[in-house]
């Protein structure tokens, strides 16, 4: 049965797919809340594609199966091999998505109920737009208490400038046109920063982006979050992606050195410094 058109004023909203990547380390309770938040949007998705990158635990399988049974008309599971990187798995999910507008989500975060309505309305108002995102509200994973709001540039010119330093979109808030992403080859094969690299490739290809200046996604923060941010693995991945941007001609040597130096500093400094640095310099 065809879905009824959804209108906001004079604008008709396009249908969209939700794309989520899932691995076996995810906590079942976090996945449950994430899926609920996406499937109960005020403007609901026409499809949810869940890419399972590894053999899931029994607890995760139960959660996935329960949602698959309840939303059997729109809930789709895509299996990815254990040897696939996040980027490779996301490309498999990207190919499986039926609709041109794709809303990305991390499997442990929470979308506010009007997130997709606002992003899809923005696409309807600005048909030349290919990427949209929002601010995020960071919250304590243990207590649920809000900690901070991570802001990003709003307008396209600001986004282009900021992209030379850091990802101008909060990863878990991004929505984009499938056609525009596939035109630049989709996600890279990397295990980290594959989302950042896709954004840069799309911007370099002339695609327009804009952020909604509201925290429409809640992002879990724990001690492990800061441990990962200062890990050697993450630092190496960040330097490698900056090298790629330099090879593309997107950043100069100067633009490459400053962010890499800051990331290296975070790796060797105490975690308390990492927390302070992120709060002071990377949140506003």
Q: How many strands, which pairing sense, and closed or not: the largest β-sheet?
A: 9 strands, mixed
Report the principal-axis shape: globular
Number of contiguous helices: 11
Q: Quick one: how many beta strands?
A: 11
Helix percentage: 40-55%
Unreliably modeled segments: none
Task: Kindly report the average pLDDT value.
Answer: 90
Could you walk me through the main structural features you see in this protein, from its secondary elements to its overall organization?
Helix content is 43%, strand content 23%. The protein contains eleven helices and eleven strands. Helix 2 links the parallel strand 4 and strand 5 (75-79). The N and C termini lie far apart (45 Å). 36% of the residues are buried. The model has no long low-confidence stretch (mean pLDDT 90).
């Amino acid at each position: 049965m065809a879905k009824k058109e959804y209108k906001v004023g004079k604008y008709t909203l396009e249908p969209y797919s939700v794309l989520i990547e899932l691995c076996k380390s995810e906590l079942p309770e976090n996945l449950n809340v994430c899926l609920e938040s996406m499937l109960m949007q005020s403007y609901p998705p026409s499809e949810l594609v869940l890419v399972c990158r590894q053999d899931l635990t029994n607890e995760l399988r139960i959660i996935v199966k329960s949602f698959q049974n309840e939303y059997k008309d729109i809930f789709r599971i895509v299996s990815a091999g254990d040897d696939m990187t996040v980027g490779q798995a996301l490309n498999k999910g990207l190919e499986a998505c039926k609709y041109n507008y794709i809303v990305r989500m991390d499997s442990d975060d929470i979308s506010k109920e009007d997130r997709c309505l606002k992003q899809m309305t923005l696409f309807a108002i600005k048909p030349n737009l290919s990427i949209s995102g929002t601010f995020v509200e960071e919250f304590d994973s243990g207590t649920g208490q809000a900690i901070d709001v991570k802001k990003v540039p709003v307008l396209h010119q600001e986004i282009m400038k900021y992209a030379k330093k850091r990802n101008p979109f909060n990863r878990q808030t991004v929505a984009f046109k499938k056609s525009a992403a596939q035109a630049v080859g989709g996600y890279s094969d990397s295990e980290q920063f594959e989302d950042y690299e896709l954004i840069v490739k799309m911007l370099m290809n002339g695609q327009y982006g804009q952020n909604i200046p509201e925290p429409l996604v809640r992002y879990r923060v724990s001690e492990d979050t800061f441990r990962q941010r200062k890990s050697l693995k993450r630092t190496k991945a960040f330097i490698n992606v900056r090298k790629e941007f330099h090879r593309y001609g997107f950043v100069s040597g100067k633009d490459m050195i400053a962010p890499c130096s800051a990331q290296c500093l975070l790796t060797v400094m105490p975690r308390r410094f990492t927390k302070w640095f992120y709060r002071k310099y990377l949140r506003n």
